[in-house]
Write a structure and sequence with these properties.
Elements: E1 3-7, E2 10-13, E3 23-28, E4 31-36, E5 45-50, H1 54-66, H2 68-79
Antiparallel strand pairs: 1-2, 2-3, 3-4, 4-5
């Protein structure tokens, strides 16, 4: 699972054998969350979360939105279409 982006101590990963729609897994601390990217322009949307607090999820979503072009390009490079 390649790390695509870091948000502080959190890792944003895309699994090579994963499924559509385009999404990322955010891992770190005691939590994991999955965000649908809505490529190519976003905005990212939370699909599920375990262990993160609401303010953390908001900060993560904002960071992902700021990197949506990179994240969608990485998804496309690994999986092809969105």
């Amino acid at each position: 699972m390649p790390t695509i982006l870091r948000i502080g101590a959190l890792r944003v990963v895309i699994y090579p054998s994963d499924h559509r729609p385009a999404h990322v897994h955010v891992q770190g601390g005691d939590g994991e969350a999955v965000f649908i990217l809505h490529c190519p322009h976003g905005p990212p949307a939370l699909r599920e979360s375990f262990g993160f607090k609401r303010p953390d999820l908001s900060a993560i979503k904002n960071a992902l939105a700021g990197a949506i072009t990179l994240l969608c390009a990485k998804w496309s490079a690994i999986h092809g279409s969105y």
